[in-house]
Design a protein that fits this description.
Protein name: Stp1/IreP family PP2C-type Ser/Thr phosphatase
Largest sheet: 6 strands, antiparallel
GO molecular function: protein serine/threonine phosphatase activity
Number of strands: 11
Number of domains: 1
Oligomer: single chain
Radius of gyration: 17 Å
Pfam families: PP2C_2
Shape: globular
Order of helices and strands: EEEHHEEEEEHHEEHHHE
Helix content: 25-40%
CATH topology: Phosphatase 2c, domain 1
CATH architecture: 4-Layer Sandwich
InterPro entries: PP2C, PPM-type-like_dom_sf, PPM-type_phosphatase-like_dom
Distance between the termini: 20 Å
């Protein structure tokens, strides 16, 4: 397995409220763990929300005795949601903070993915596929047939999300599982990438095996910034089977 992760403040924001965690080594009973969070809130609140939520998730997973990856990740995200709400109630400067989160672990040939908000997980093979479904006002309108994809990309309300950690006392987490194939590349990202770069172009960049994973990651960030860089950018790239020996 090869991994590369990075965040970038972008071209317009003064503060980076995106946060990533990427470990190819075991975390608790999970064989690996990858998390992207995109915080929201004034001043330092968004930065705190994303980093604190990811920290809680990692710590909860380390301490969880369960071996079911979905149960382990769900419990960790629920704990992070409760903690974010508690901290916001204690500190006026943190009032109203929240964060998106997409988390994943790869067990053998299968990826188990959790999602709250509009940070995404893609898998690229012969073509790129978005696995997660955005919890956003505009994507809800797309799913209901009220907007097409192009209208959604340019809609003025595209940054309004309908779920986040810290928004409600209980958090509704979506889960996805998928079988990975040799040659697949997994991308997790905040909307600072997906709003700035078309999916097809993202797929071209991350499937370019002439460049190593770090070069592809930096190319994604450069492309987002070249297209305006209107938000912070967070990425995690994973080549699940990169180090496996092919059988003759």
């Amino acid at each position: 397995m090869r991994i590369y992760s990075a965040t970038d403040v972008g071209q317009k924001r003064k503060m980076n409220q995106d946060y990533v965690f990427a470990s190819a080594d075991p975390v608790g009973n999970l064989p690996n763990l990858f998390v992207v969070a995109d915080g929201m809130g004034g001043h330092n609140a968004g930065d705190y929300a994303s980093s604190h939520a990811v920290g809680i998730v990692v710590e909860e997973i380390r301490e969880d005795a369960d071996f079911n990856p979905v149960k382990v990740i769900r419990h960790a995200i629920e704990s992070a949601n409760t903690e974010i709400i508690t901290q916001a109630q204690k500190d006026e400067k943190l009032r109203g903070m929240g964060t998106t989160m997409v988390a994943a672990t790869i067990v053998g040939h299968y990826a188990y993915v959790a999602n709250v908000g509009d940070s995404r997980l893609y898998v690229a093979g012969e073509q790129i596929q978005q696995i997660t479904k955005d919890h956003s006002l505009v994507q809800e309108m797309v799913r209901m047939g009220e907007l097409n994809a192009e209208e959604a990309r340019n809609h003025p309300d595209k940054n309004i999300i309908t779920r986040a950690l810290g928004a409600e006392r209980t958090v509704d987490v979506d889960f996805f599982d998928l079988k990975l194939e040799p040659g697949n590349v997994v991308l997790m990202c905040s909307d600072g990438l997906s709003n700035m770069v078309e999916d097809d172009r993202i797929g071209e960049i991350i499937s370019d095996t002439d460049r190593d994973l770090q070069e592809r990651g930096q190319a994604l960030i450069s492309e987002a910034n070249r297209n305006g860089g209107k938000d912070n950018i967070a990425i995690v790239l994973i080549e699940p089977f990169a180090n496996e020996v092919k059988k003759c």
